[in-house]
Design goal:
Order of helices and strands: HHHHHH
Shape: rod-shaped
Largest sheet: none
Helix content: over 70%
Radius of gyration: 32 Å
Number of strands: 0
Number of helices: 6
Strand content: under 5%
Structural class: mainly alpha
Distance between the termini: 73 Å
C-alpha cells in the first residue's frame, strides 16, 4: 500500500471517527440528562405524596410525647390500687402501649428525631421507676405527688423531644 492510499483512507476514516465520538458524547449526555430529569420528576412527585404522611407522623409523635408527659399522664391514668409498684407498672405499661401504637412512625421521621422520642420515653419510664423505688413513698397517691414535685424542679423529658420535632418540622419549610 502506498502512502497516498493510507492518507486517503485516513481522510475518510478520521472524520467518521470524530463524528461518531461527538455523536456518542452528545447522545450519552442527552440520555444522562433525561435520566436525571426523570429521577427529579419522580422524586418531586414522591415528595408531594410523602409530605402529608411525614407531617402526620410528626403530629402523631407530638401527641405521643404530650400523652407521656408525666403531668398529663398522671391526670389521665388513675391508680388501679393503692400499691405504688402496681401504679408504676400501670403507668409504664400505658407508656409502652402508646409507644407501640406509634412505632411505625419512625419510617417517616429522621433517625435523630426518632432517637429523641425513644430517649424521652425511656427517661419518663426511668423517672417513674426511680420515684417508685423511693422508700419513703408507700402509696400510689404519694407516688403521683413525688413525680409531680420532680417536674417542678426540672423539665419533662418529652419537652426536649417535642422541641426537636418542632425544629425539624420548621426546617421542612
Amino acid at each position: 500500500m502506498d502512502s497516498t492510499k493510507i492518507i486517503e483512507l485516513l481522510s475518510y476514516t478520521l472524520p467518521s471517527v470524530i463524528t461518531g465520538g461527538v455523536a456518542y458524547f452528545l447522545f450519552n449526555s442527552y440520555f444522562k440528562d433525561q435520566q436525571h430529569t426523570r429521577r427529579w420528576l419522580n422524586q418531586k412527585e414522591t415528595q408531594k405524596q410523602a409530605l402529608p404522611l411525614r407531617l402526620q407522623a410528626y403530629e402523631r409523635l407530638s401527641l405521643f410525647l404530650e400523652r407521656i408527659n408525666p403531668s398529663k399522664l398522671l391526670i389521665r391514668v388513675a391508680p388501679i390500687s393503692n400499691d405504688k409498684n402496681d401504679y408504676a407498672d400501670y403507668l409504664i405499661a400505658s407508656i409502652d402501649q402508646e409507644f407501640e401504637h406509634n412505632l411505625t412512625q419512625q419510617i417517616y421521621v429522621s433517625s435523630s428525631c426518632w432517637g429523641y422520642v425513644v430517649t424521652a420515653k425511656n427517661a419518663t419510664n426511668q423517672m417513674i421507676r426511680k420515684a417508685a423505688s423511693t422508700s419513703e413513698i408507700t402509696t400510689a397517691n404519694e407516688l403521683r405527688e413525688l413525680i409531680l414535685k420532680e417536674l417542678f424542679d426540672k423539665d419533662s423529658p418529652s419537652n426536649a423531644a417535642l422541641a426537636f420535632i418542632k425544629d425539624e418540622v420548621s426546617d421542612m419549610w
